[in-house]
Amino acid sequence: MNVDSAAISEIDYDADRTKLLIRFANGERYVYVGVPGEVCRAFVEADSRGRFFQSQIRDRYPFNRLDAQPPT
After folding, report:
1. Is-above-0.85 flag for pTM?
2. What pLDDT shows up at residue 11?
């Protein structure tokens, strides 16, 4: 889902695999593993998704960087 954020352009979640896919405004894509559904819901609903990412996701879950794609 596309989101209105200066730092993050897209958030997708695979509930079966508890994987959170984030596309940043610069086109970089990362997948975070083991993210609970409630964390993803709070992320989508956060007033500042960038701040939420920094405090609740970054450095808390294992991740992999995916091939970068330019923002659309």
Report:
1. yes
2. 96
